[in-house]
Amino acid sequence: MTSKPYTSRAEKKQRTRKALIDAAADLLASNGIRGTTLEAVADRAGLHVQTLYRHFSNKGELFAALEESLFLEQKALLEDSEREASTMEVRYGMDVANLRSLHQDGVKNALVSLTDPEWAGVHMLSSYRYEDLLSEHLARELGCEPNDPEPRLLAAMLQWGATSVLRSMDDATARSEEAMLALYKRTFDLIAEVQESFAR
Fold first, then answer.
1. For residues 2 and 113, which has the higher predicted lDDT (pLDDT)?
2. What is the mean pLDDT of the chain?
3. Average confidence (pLDDT) over 97-114
4. Measured between alpha carbons, how far is 19 from 198 in angstroms, rounded to an integer?
5. Residue 86 Ramachandran class (φ > 0 left, ψ -120 to 50 alpha, else beta)
6. 46 pLDDT higher than 90
7. Which range, 15-19, 60-64, 65-69, 109-113, has the best average confidence (pLDDT)?
8. DSSP 8
9. Contact in structure between 149 and 194 (CB atoms under 8 Å)
10. Lesser CB count within 10 Å: N end or C end of the chain?
11. R_g over Cα of the chain
């Protein structure tokens, strides 16, 4: 008889926490922040709501953990010593994947979430961290310092590029993945032109 591999309490806790964060991400995309309750998150994760409260005391803590998870995901991609893609290409790939994940009501829900008091503060603080991270890696590629104007400007443009696309969409564009991605590609190409002008 083969025994099951031992799982420590810390590993179980981490697995439960990840399940809750993943469930929150799914529900935010489909229901928006106002339509996402802690009870629904626990149910989506297949857990009792009291289990959720042992990890997160309120919605704000859960959303902060979700933002941290997304930040660490991008950080890992950028700090991969074997990556061949540029910083711009890595961010473009992540933004395209995120935009593809928004289904019919996802764009509207994403916009509501960005302006909701429960989420906006967490999102803004995370955005500054993303800008710092992007600026650091862009500076290496441009051959300058992270706090120089060039990488700082590019980092800000990359960080807010997808958000500007969401805010500028009309209903027809939001319902068409092809139109949505084409609009983002135009935005990204403009940012790439700015980067090229810095490299000259």
1. 113
2. 86
3. 68
4. 43
5. beta
6. yes
7. 15-19
8. -
9. no
10. N
11. 19
Phi-psi region of 170 (alpha: psi -120 to 50; beta: other; left: phi over 0): beta
CB environment 164-183: b (16+ within 10 A), e (fewer): ebbeebeeebbeeeeebbeb
Structure tokens at 163: 């958000």
145-149 long-range contacts (CB < 8 A, ≥24 apart) are: none
| Block residue for tokens 């790439």 | 192
CA 115 to chain centre: 16
- Tell me the two tokens of residue 45: 């994760």
Q: Which domains does the chain have, with CATH numbers?
A: 60-199 (1.10.357.10)
Helix, strand, coil % (nearest 5) of the chain? 80, 0, 20
Give the pLDDT confidence score for residue 51 in this predicted structure: 96
Are 121 and 148 contacting, i.e. CB atoms less than 8 angstroms apart? no
**Residue corresponding to tokens 């995901």:** 73
Residues 6+ apart with CB under 8 A from 41: 20, 23, 24, 27, 52, 62
pLDDT at position 93 over 90: yes
Distance CA 75, CA 163 (A): 19
Can you tell me the distance from the alpha carbon of 154 to that of 166, in angstroms, rounded to the nearest whole number? 19
Our CA dihedral for 71, 73, 79, 83, rounded to 10 degrees, sits at: -140
Q: What is the pTM of this model?
A: 0.82
Longest CA pairwise span in the chain (Å): 67
